[in-house]
User: Fold these one by one.
Assistant:
Number 1:
Amino acid sequence: MIIPLVKGLSLTFRRFFSKPITILYPEQRWECYPRFRGRHQLQRKEDGSAKCVACQLCATVCPSECIRVVTVEGPDHERYAESYEIDLSRCIFCGYCVEACPVGAIVMTGEYELATYNRDDTQYNMEMLLEK
Amino acid sequence: MVSLTIDGKEVVAEEGTTILKAAKSVGIDIPTLCYHERLNPIGSCRMCVVEIEGLPHPMTACNTPVVEGIKVTTASGRLLRMREETLKLILVNHPLDCPICDKGGECTLQDLVHEFEIDGAGYQAIREKRESSYATPLIHYWPDRCIMCLRCITACREIKGLGAIDISGSGFDASVVAVDKDKCESCGECISVCPTGALTENLSQYKARPWMVDRVMTTCTYCGCGCQLEINVLDNRITSITTKDHVGINKGSLCVKGRFGYEFIESEERITKPLVKKNGEFHEASWEDALNLVAENFNTIKASHGADAIACLSSARCTNEENYLIQKLMRAVIGTNNIDHCSRLWHSSTVAGLATAFGSDAMTNPIADVLKSEAILVTGSNTTENHPIFANYIKEAVLKKGAKLIVVDPRKIDLVDYAGIWLRPKPGTDIAWINGLLHIIIKENLHAAEYIKERTEGFEELKACVEKYTPEYVSEITGIKASDLVNTAITYGKAKPASIMYAMVITQHINGTDNVKSLANLAMLCGNISVEGGGVNPLRGQNNVQGACDLGALPNVFTGYQPVTNDEVRQKFEMAWGVDNLQGKVGLTVTEMFNAAEEGKVKAMYIMGENPLLSDPDLNHIEHCIKSLDFLVVQDIFLTETAKYADVVLPAVSFAEKDGTFTNSERKVQRIRKAIKPRGEAKEGYRIICELSNKLGFRMDYSSPRNIMEEIRKVTPSYAGITYERIEEEGIQWPCPDEGHPGTPILHVGQFARGKGQFTAIEYQEPAELPDDEYPFLLATGRVFAHYHAGTMTSKGKGLNMLYPELLVEINPDDAVSLGIASGDSVHITSRRGDIKVKAQVSERPDRGVVFLPFHLKESPANILTINAIDPIAKIPQYKVCAVRIEGIKQ
Ligand code: SF4
Ligand code: SF4
Ligand code: SF4
Ligand code: FES
């Protein structure tokens, strides 16, 4: 009975003297881990065009159904996305879309500051997602 | 019967079945890739290998027949390894581009690769990106994805009977190429059987992936075949048309219009708001205002000129429910029988002719019956272009079942290639050659004496009448060689059973009714009515001609052909509709309506879904008639030529935007289903009619077409057993008198609808207008496969116009030489009624002295030329024959 109590308290006391985990946000900013799942980013090919082939797999796998891709056909029967939208207010940041993408066109960045004053600003379109 | 063991299970199978089918019958699945149920086994992929005890090598299950006592293993370790290797070898050549391939998600190869857990080829080959063109611009061929299963080639040959594509090259360079681009009809059969994404369609490429769309099963809106198809919808837009393998008469096939002709639905030219004309210009209006205006005008005209001053053209394009309501509106609310529809222009001589002979006017047999016929006589129907799916059946009967095909047609139509006998009578001489056949059959004693005695009347008169139609005499009139005629008569007379198919070319003559009766004579003479594989089968042009007639959009009958002149019938309808003054006087037919309009007897017209200003004969005359109307309402989906003259235009919806039923040419009542929401403010036809009726002071409350069908059933004996629940999966053929009745595929079994079959003695008459020195050519009008009717729908998309962008007049090479015309030259065609300018195409199809002109496109409306002489009984205009002059235009 007494031993667990001492064990628990010892942890508490140790924390008194260790470096604090909380930071003074926003003066100080947190460096996220490499595999952190933040805002999405669309990748470009070497020639600068979007990598996305508009296969709809991300939109299909997304559990909160917040991705919308419109596919069109190029003059040479190539397939590309005319528009690509993510509703970040619904996204649960599960990362399935990244996993599903067969060409690595969508990745998740470390950006986590996604609060907005305006609901409409949570709707990300293709240009916003392609921005570095 | 043969018994064998498959995977330890005892199986009994019929002799000749394949191991694959035998295995399936006991629930054992063998993987396949090139095998397709509708095709003869191809045996090109080797996925279906099985081991047979005692044989050193595995055998392919799809094309090895069962043998007594064999022991088959379908899934040993060796077989699985072999199948895996097979797949890997295919993947050497097949790119793993599933994410960008349209087929991804419903690809047989993809499924198999998944099943066998293969993640790459395992072998490498040097591949170059290849591009190759295909037989039609509507289909894209991806040579890299092709696995050389040969399904497409086999389907084109076996189902369509065309053989337009074949393999060229060998090894990695092999690809599917067009043998003859002109043969390809762009029907898309090859796409629908291709197991991979090697064939994709160019119209809907990439619009949606298979799993994203809703597939709504419905009935095609174009021709009387009544094919079942699925509309693929994503976000309220149509992305493509697909089919299910086993469903409907088409069993997965479609023609070019059905598969690619959907673009009109989303055309920008659709009207989306009611339009009201003020000072000669259309202004958008609210539904309320537009309908009030219609109601007001109808009321004033009815008050000042009587109900008969109002007339209505219903439509064979609209659903049964809409046709029923509009005739109810005219009869019960307005109080006139002036209602008709354009089937008059196609087939009312069928109604008149077959009704006299048999007592009922429809196709006597289902189309699939031709597979049981020994001989098939096709006349006046360019079946491959107008009823492509029916044509598939005819070809199958000839190619697979060995039926003899007799084609009687002045044009060298495509079916001639499959025919054993082809007769080429001069246009308009049908009665002569039919009487000739009757004469020979009686002389040769090939007629069914027993049947004639028991079931028909009027034989003696007929016999006396055809006495003088000796082969020589007929030959003089028709230009058919006497020996050919005899040959035909013997072939038809000896075949048991033999079937007759005909279409517009027979009916659109001033003696159309007599033509039809003559064909009925021929069929009865040989005892071919009421038997499987026999019959007289009018092929109905438009999707719902049959339904529009059935539902009483005719001036002389209520639904189910119950005559308006009959007091009892009228009382029944008065009770059902809650009115007390139904008119007993037969109303005006289409042609009479227009004439009456010109004379000022008809003041107002309601035209629902028709475009008489393109489809009716003698256009200049019709235009004048329409202009003389005081008030014209047009309900349509486009601002058609006719709608331009309207005072009020009401925007209706296409078949994809409404529920209801169509009745196909075989009398099969089939569902259509709403796939997308109406465009703009457009409304379903039944809502428009109900609202108008309410404004006219007669309550019509139907919450859905289903309720209308319930009412139809109560008043129409032949539809009494047809409910939406019963036709959910598969249509029912009327007559269907009660809910337990399975429907009637073959008419007149045991007894003719009128009691005894009626022979009619008919003499040959010359056509109304024959060529003379001034107008030396006979003009025949008709359709081409890529377009439909007035072209209102088919010319709206890019797809079908790609195939047949402009009107071409077909001229026989000999005539072309004497006129000094080459293909592509512009010519003037002049008749006594008008003239048009078109490009010429020199072709073997028309006979010398005859030119053929399709009537679809509004740029050069062929019907300016045609004649308005009408059949005295059916009042059908004589479109098919008129005399014209042709002159080349000097550049
Ligand atoms: S992270 Fe998850 S919820 Fe967010 S878009 Fe991707 S799949 Fe959808
Ligand atoms: S195109 Fe399709 S159906 Fe034709 S051979 Fe290639 S894979 Fe088979
Ligand atoms: S054959 Fe007729 S019903 Fe069938 S798809 Fe073609 S147009 Fe439609
Ligand atoms: S399925 Fe039998 S060989 Fe292809």
Number 2:
Amino acid sequence: MGSYELSLVTLAAIYVMLALSLNLITGFCGQISLGHAAFFGAGAYAAALLTKSGWPLAPALVSGAVLAAAFGFVVGLASLRVRHDFLAITTMGVGFLFIGFVRKQQGLGGELGLSGIPDHGLGPWGLAALTVTLAAATAALSLHIRRVWAGQAFAAIADDEDTARALGIDVMRYKLTAFVLGTALAGLAGGLFAHFTRFIIPDAFGFTVSISILAMVIIGGIGSTWGVLAGAVILTLMPELFRFINDYKLLLYGGLLLLVMRFAPGGLAGGIAALTARLRGAT
Amino acid sequence: MLHVELTIQGLINGSMYALMAVGLTLVYGLLRILHVAHAGLYTLGAYIAVLIANATGSLALGAAVAIPVVGLAGMIVYRLLYEPILHRPPYVALIASIGLFIVMEESYRLIFGPYGETFNAPYLAERVSVGPIGAKAAEVAMVAGAIVLLGVLAFLSKRTRFGIAWRATVTDPAMARAFGVDTIAVRYANFFIASALAASAAVLVAVLNNLVEPTMGSVPSYKTLAIIVLGGLGNVAGTLVAALALGVIEAFGTIYIGHLLDRDAIAFLFLVLVLMIRPQGLFAAR
Amino acid sequence: MTALLEVEGVGVRFGGIQALDDVSFALAEGELLGLIGPNGAGKTTMLRAITGVIRPNPGRIRLAGADITDFSTDRRARTGLALTHQIVKPLRAMTARDNVALAAGHAKTTNVLAALFAIDRTKELARADELLRLVGIENHADAMPSTLPLGALKRLEVARALALDPKVLLLDEPLAGLNHVEAARLADTIVDLNRAGMSIVLIEHNLGEVMRICPRLMVLDNGRRIAMGAAKTVMEDPFVRAAYLGREAGDAAA
Ligand SMILES: Nc1ncnc2c1ncn2[C@@H]1O[C@H](COP(=O)(O)OP(=O)(O)OP(=O)(O)O)[C@@H](O)[C@H]1O
Ligand SMILES: [Mg+2]
């Protein structure tokens, strides 16, 4: 593999982490978030500032995740106060607030962003191996959560909050847990991203990015770990592999979002499940 | 003096928000859809107006074509996109709408180019002043346009049979149907009116800035969502107040907290703060 | 007999409507209490105040001596209050068995951290099967709720409520929408549960079944408690006849 291929693998792994982390919040727990890139950004900025001030990579990445999770906890608390339609707009607002704030902070490089982020020292192979391992761990965690009791409780909340409460499920704590887990992983992905590109600007964490992450979840199949994983890989690699698509990347994301929601809300995973069911029925 | 000017500037922007947000809140009130693509229709209105105005030399003709055409486009969006997915959970329509908005913006960029169009001859650029207070004619037109259009809308909804049927449907669709209101026709009319209002706002903004660009809908799109939440989703009067208030708060905010926060983020700061104190919005729905 | 559930001076107001006005009652351990009253009397509102979906103002609610008025709905469920809804509310994305098993696992879902590690569901699935058998829908265990008839869904609600191992079971019109054979069968199930020691509050419009199975009745009308006592005496009460039977005696007797 050349360094270009390695960088594609790294990027895809970062997006897999991001999409799976949003899937924990939106897919498993049913809480729509239109501002996930803000947590990605919080982790990226925190980790970058720390390594720039001399910290080693590992503690910087962990601190980025912790900071993003703390931010996620606060947003989660806020989201408990609002319901359904309001939540989508509140999380979107948090996303705009985040970049609106970062743009104006000289300490964070303002509009120009942070450059000169130190070399991670792992080499292209090392970084690719690290991100792929972490993405695989995120997928394993997702599959695990689906199997445990907490996964059942999340599913109940996504289905009908009031009924979940009547069954003794502490909806508030579960939602906060989903937010904290999901945003911590997004923050970790952010730290990796910052050290992968070694240069970050506020717009790398804006609304368009939040929507792109959401597109991966929706197109892959909301709630399905394998579907979301595939969605993230396909949507990240397609514009890179077919260069002519690159200029139409947003058009592609938007169009797919539109078509999936209109014709196949189960996404890729839902489509494949329906197809295998039909094939089985036919034989 | 600064404060007076900031207030006026805020009210001008607030008028534009009001024209867009009223349509959005009506769509929400009727169908519980967060219609993000509303802003895509808005941009469409501006493009139609600028292209026709430049081809024929008449802005009036441009506006006269743009407004009804965008109204029809709104009806088509309802028919082809929303109607088939109304029975699904609300996030489905929201995300589909975001998808459509992105597709529209990208299409404008690919078809008309990224740099935007200007009018061959700028309209309403002269300044008018009353005593020490001055404003561009286009700015006066914006405020006057909002007052007239929303005034006419309010009048029609109170005084005509259709207006009454419309309000009844927004309040309680099942009851309205029981009284013989054709609620499907009401939905189409609602999309027509909402989209036509957005197009009117777009023409005014295009004239004011003498610029029509593919992304001109982005900022209003998300900001008007904040406004209709603040106004108490589905509440028209609340939405008007929230639109004007936000215009003014932004104008002051840019001066006083502009060094801390981007102008476009001020709306959301306001939104998040208000929701923490009053989760149902500034004005609860009805 | 000691009171298990005590409702004290509960009032609930919705805008201009006084849905409940200073209502008090007590449910004894092991009792089956019928709660009746015309449409809009405030019966569902009373259950919602007890389970904490709405907050009474004023009023206190005590369960087994502990004041639970300030508890959240989920905490009340864990403290021992289970409810079946007038309009069935199954979790649509899981099978009937999983619906019941989730409720049976209430001890395992209480602590979020522990729930992130606990996988084993054997005990709860077995308990779910046992309860589905008890309410007579064991053959629907693997069905998704959307494919089940209303009668089965009503029973699923009861099974799921029982899976919470409640101290008190609150049933909101479990018989509504069932034909008379189904209704009589479910009513018998309710009696069996009560004989086995379960304390129950039963809201029901089907007066025939209520008279048959409930020894004691409370009557609400316009948010007020207008009668309480042995079923027969209550039904002969002139106030009750005026407020309630006057309107509905015809179909109740049928
Ligand atoms: N959420 C609410 N908002 C406003 N009014 C309500 C609400 N819930 C109930 N009410 C009103 O309170 C009164 C009592 O309603 P409730 O549902 O408790 O009656 P009920 O006795 O259960 O009637 P039914 O036998 O029809 O189920 C009614 O007038 C009803 O319209
Ligand atoms: Mg009721």
Number 3:
Amino acid sequence: MAAAIDYEAFRAEVRAFAETRCPPEIRAVVATYRKLSRKVWYPWQRILFEHGWGAPGWPKQYGGTGWDLKQRHIFDEVMAECDCPPQYHHGLRHIGPVILEYGSEEQKQRFLPGILSGEDWWCQGYSEPGAGSDLASLRTMARREGDEYVVEGQKTWTSHAHESDWMYTLVRTSKEAKKQQGISLLLIPLNSPGISIRPIRTIDGWHHVNEVFLDNVRVPVANRVGEEGGGWTYGKFLLERERLGGANVAPALRNLERTRELLARELGGERHELKRAMLEERLLLAEAELRGAQALGQEAIAAVMEGRPLGLLPSVLKLGTSVTFQHVAEVALDAVGERLAPRFRPTDAAGPNADAPGIEWVQNYMYSRVRTIYGGSSEVQKNVIAKQLFGS
Amino acid sequence: MPFTATPIVGGDAFDQACRIGQEADRQLALIDDFAGQLACLRRHWDSLAGLGWLAVAVPEEAGGAGGTLSDLAALAGGAGRGGLPLPIASACGVIPHLLADQPELLPGLAEGQHRIAFVPAEAAVDEATDVPRLALDGSLTGAVVGIETPPDPTHLLLVLDGAEPVLLLLPASARGIAARHYLRIDGRLAADWRFTGVAVEPCWILGRGEVVTRRAAEAREIGALLTCVEAVSAAGALLEQTIDYLLNRVQFGVPLASHQALRHRVAEMYVEYENLRGLILQALRAAGAGDGLSWRDIAFAKLRLGEAGRFIAQSAIQCHGGIGMTEALPAIRLARRIMMAEFEFGDRTFHAQRLLNAGRGAA
Ligand SMILES: Cc1cc2nc3c(=O)[nH]c(=O)nc-3n(C[C@H](O)[C@H](O)[C@H](O)COP(=O)(O)OP(=O)(O)OC[C@H]3O[C@@H](n4cnc5c(N)ncnc54)[C@H](O)[C@@H]3O)c2cc1C
């Protein structure tokens, strides 16, 4: 049997690394809620990669760390506490594990190294204008022609498509089969002829998401992961892997701490006494909720490590933490709103106030509304929970 | 028949304001550059000035329409419903009230010759030391930020606190004024101003002392009340548009409107909306009864706007799903406007503080 892991020593090692090796300018981006783009993420991934920590969740054989779940959790927690960016997820946490599980050896050799080193950037082409919560109704068609698929259709809400090289894409390869069974998973280079990408501005003025149009795009059959018609299963596998995402409450707690510092800074003096007292109370209530969630997160990790079923924990964590995060963002908005809300402009706009100190809190508030919409909306999570509680 | 919101004060003025608002909102959404946005807003400003909006609250003897608060509420309500990104509460209500003692200025104001930005005594500043001050030698120093303005402002109307409050009408082109103009996220124009030893000419000082304090306080109530009218009217339109979206968006083979979770959320939005509307109607009625403005009703209404307005805006975004996170739909632009309205003429703690102070005073 392997020697028992000293988790506290591990935590200290990760912390020392984060504090000394993550460049201050990258940590500042996280600490001030500026947009994480490939330009910021890539150098950090490079540093992790060169240290051998490029892929905490992958097996050693493919360049991963081989850490157990608890170590990975500690790693994520410490990163958040130190304002290091969470690793760019689409390659490492989403499509990487699917390729590891279902891809051919040739695909592993071809795609995993670029993800690991950060050379290749991936985005997720699942949602469509008509297929959001009801993803299985997606209509983007892939018609087989010899060694190629010809893909025709539209994706939307595609985060980071404008800075990505590849899109892992759910497409319909059969109209005859049951909705879920006619879906396949294709890896599509975004520089393929026939692809056009159009930005969508979100309410906070960011360019984060895109529409991706596919007009007779030719994709080699060799870029299909697994079986034709197996796409739904692989997509669900991916979501399963992500189910523990909510267990990491550290970013939300760090956000709360920063908000508390903001109150002290922004609302000093007698004039703001009432506001400060009211907002501090709301923060305390949020902190209590987050502490509860943190305890549940540890429970969830222990359950997986001991092979016990997770039950409803992932839904409970996602539902609760997303709402609490929003509450904290509202507290911050209320602290700075009179001074800064009237100055808020699209984040990438140049000119006055684009960088007014503290302006990021207004942006953070607006963008925080997405938390209860993506990654399984609150309504969908409640449906899942209720269905199990009622047994039907 | 799905829900249709009832205006606080309906009629031709309401309809006209709503139409202009929708047009401006639609056009603005298609323009990317600041010069183009400014030109678009200027066009709409000129047309509403031409229609006599700025004259509504000016007395008849000064060339105005001699309208009441209820006439202003019709304009503010229509503007709110249409999503008009111009400072209607200030331009039509607050500024005419502050200038009510200035017979020589009123005709020009009514005719739309001036485009005045209002800088209240509690205007936001980045540093406490920035609060604008008029020195004994008559020079003005300080800096204010995030002030909503009409397009191409010709003047700034400042209320200065201090031992002796002062009402000051400053030409925007005066020496020593540095301005930064920009378009806020909700499509409204704003500016940051810095005053560096601006030599204030005696004729720019419109009033001093007690009378300024009283007028400024009344003007703020008018501003807060009209902002509430505008926002609740936007909320009514938002509710309609959310219902419409849910009736038409199909997922899992059925319209979203068939899900009880969403129906209940909309029902809650409606309850909040009606409650807020009730408070605002009450404040307007009290004002119409001739006892002046009831500051307490207005404070409660603005406090509620903070709570209810945000709930409605956030719920609308949630019900829309992904598209609720974008600027693409007029509904979401209304939602964002409602969120911003909370911070104008005193946020919720500002008004809570007033109510608490009064309660303590009475006890
Ligand atoms: C900023 C952002 C980034 C995103 N990034 C990506 C990405 O990179 N790749 C990608 O593929 N997708 C992405 N998405 C899409 C996201 O996953 C979808 O928005 C989400 O699945 C919801 O789908 P929808 O927007 O179509 O909303 P809808 O499904 O139309 O839902 C609208 C509303 O109805 C509710 N609802 C739906 N079904 C039910 C039900 N059965 N019972 C009760 N209520 C219900 C929802 O909860 C929501 O409130 C992103 C979205 C956003 C906003």
